[in-house]
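User: Could you check the structure of this?
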Amino acid sequence: MPKRPVIFHRRFFINGKVNYIGSNIIMNWLAQIETELRRIQPGKNPGRTRTIARRVAGFALQQFYQSFTEDFLTLLKQAALDSSLPNDVQHSAQRLSERLSSDFQSPSIDPIGDAKIIVEFVKRTHDKENRK
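Assistant: Sure, the predicted structure tokens are below.
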């Protein structure tokens, strides 16, 4: 008979689903990112693409900072100011966190590319920590 997961008292909500925090019970952050990336419709609604990119980067930064906040914009701003991060990660976070210009142009030419830079950095960091 398979072991039943232990339910921890700490919980939080992501996309309307309850997630329990513990050693083995948490919705896989990489799965959350993949779910968001599947929502992209190339060539349509750049505002939605930018929002998805912010969410993708936010899920990765939650993992990196071990944060339970769902305020992804705050996490992006924190990463943009974090001098311990590589420059490309900082710059990507900066572009994703900035407001649109007065003519509604995004500072990020490729928001998904910027989000993927952040995700790849967090994956590498996460992998190194898990190997220890």
